[in-house]
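2024-03-11 09:14:02 INFO worker-7 job=invfold-0412 stage=load source=structure_tokens
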């Protein structure tokens, strides 16, 4: 009910503001992805599944100084096992609903925002692109051909306020105050968060760093009712950095913690495979292709919607050619090869035997894309070659196919 009232307030504000203006500016993107794979059914035979993801992103300029972002996505359950005459269950989510007011203060530009959803989340390049107009610098390894929310290494949803100040020379600082809902020990509770952020975009270094704490707002303590008690803090931090630029040899880094607990009892930050994310990627350019080498350690939640990555820890070599400007159809292609370890993370390096004995997978992922009807059509095949030698799996279980389309307007 509270979420419905907040959405209604945004829509009311939008309607009233629009009526005051003669012209409204609108831009956005929309698209979707079909996901198909083979699996072994209950009769020990091969079967196929088919799911779909769709997304819509919009930016509506009510005036020169006020605009609204509205992003949402939807994911279906298995379509292949539903008949054409039955409805297929689907999950709908508002990824972002925000309103931003811009004001000039001498040489500074001030942005005041109110939002719901994943707003300028750490572990992505969204803040850099919005503040400095940069092109996408995120890793192609984590690209899922969907909207912004699909690329988040740290999916973090909340509702609150933001204040951003952009300085001369491509620098910006921001502060966030927001609440979100967490679950622990099968109990839901609200968390009050405060974050600080600094970002810059220079010729040979681009960086975005954020740091914040969240305090769970619980109403019981040792079986007694209280107004509010905070006995644990959640640390969340993120760094996105590119040393070099998109036209030179470079090194890309994304790392951080998502809700790492710090309690008065332990007096230390609990870093686990469920809250640490790390992606280090040296990038090499030649006249004919690009080569990206990656070391990644991601949370299970971040891997849920990714096409190329299934396991949380591993190494990748991505060889691709995206020189679309020299081709009329915008054709680009690549091959992603990943060697990964099941249920492992960077934290497990301190116990080498655990990584050594973990199930290992080798996947090869050819993919291609081209411009179609003003948008971009992408397709990829994922083949887990390890299933050729693993007795508990059939090779067809390691085959997955995705096709996605995205158009901007």
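2024-03-11 09:14:09 INFO worker-7 stage=emit residues=409
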């Amino acid at each position: 009910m509270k979420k419905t009232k907040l959405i209604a307030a945004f829509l009311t504000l939008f309607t009233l503001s629009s009526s005051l203006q003669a012209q409204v500016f609108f831009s956005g993107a929309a698209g979707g992805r079909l996901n198909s794979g083979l699996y072994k059914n209950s009769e020990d035979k091969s079967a196929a599944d088919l799911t779909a993801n769709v997304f819509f992103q919009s930016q509506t300029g009510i005036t020169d100084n006020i605009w609204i972002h509205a992003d949402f996505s939807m994911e279906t359950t298995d379509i292949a096992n539903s008949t054409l005459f039955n409805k297929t269950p689907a999950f709908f989510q508002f990824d972002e609903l925000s309103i931003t007011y811009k004001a000039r203060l001498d040489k500074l530009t001030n942005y005041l925002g109110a939002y719901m959803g994943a707003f300028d989340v750490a572990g992505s390049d969204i803040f850099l692109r919005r503040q400095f107009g940069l092109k996408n610098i995120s890793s192609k390894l984590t690209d899922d051909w969907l909207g912004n929310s699909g690329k988040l290494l740290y999916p973090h949803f909340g509702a609150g306020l933001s204040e951003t100040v952009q300085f001369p020379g491509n620098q910006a600082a921001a502060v966030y105050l927001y609440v979100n809902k967490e679950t622990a020990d099968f109990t839901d509770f609200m968390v009050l968060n405060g974050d600080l952020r600094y970002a810059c975009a220079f010729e040979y270094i681009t960086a975005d760093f954020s740091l914040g704490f969240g305090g769970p707002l619980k109403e019981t303590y040792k079986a007694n009712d209280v107004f509010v008690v905070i006995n644990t803090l959640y640390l969340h931090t993120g760094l996105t950095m590119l040393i070099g630029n998109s036209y030179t040899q470079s090194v890309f880094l994304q790392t951080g913690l998502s809700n790492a607990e710090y309690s008065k009892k332990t007096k230390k930050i609990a870093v686990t495979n469920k809250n640490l994310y790390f992606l280090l990627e040296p990038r090499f350019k030649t006249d004919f292709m690009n080569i990206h080498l990656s070391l990644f350690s991601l949370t299970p939640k971040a891997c849920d919607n990714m096409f190329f990555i299934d396991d949380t820890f591993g190494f990748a070599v991505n060889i691709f050619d995206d020189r679309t400007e020299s081709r009329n159809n915008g054709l680009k292609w690549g091959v992603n090869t990943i060697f990964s370890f099941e249920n492992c993370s960077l934290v497990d390096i301190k116990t080498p035997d655990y990584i050594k004995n973990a199930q290992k997978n080798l996947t090869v992922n050819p993919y291609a894309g081209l411009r179609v009807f003003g948008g971009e059509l992408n397709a990829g095949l994922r083949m887990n070659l390890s299933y050729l030698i693993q007795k508990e799996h059939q090779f067809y279980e390691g085959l997955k196919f995705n096709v996605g389309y995205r158009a901007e307007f």
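2024-03-11 09:14:09 INFO worker-7 stage=report msg="The longest strand covers residues 205-221."
2024-03-11 09:14:10 INFO worker-7 job finished
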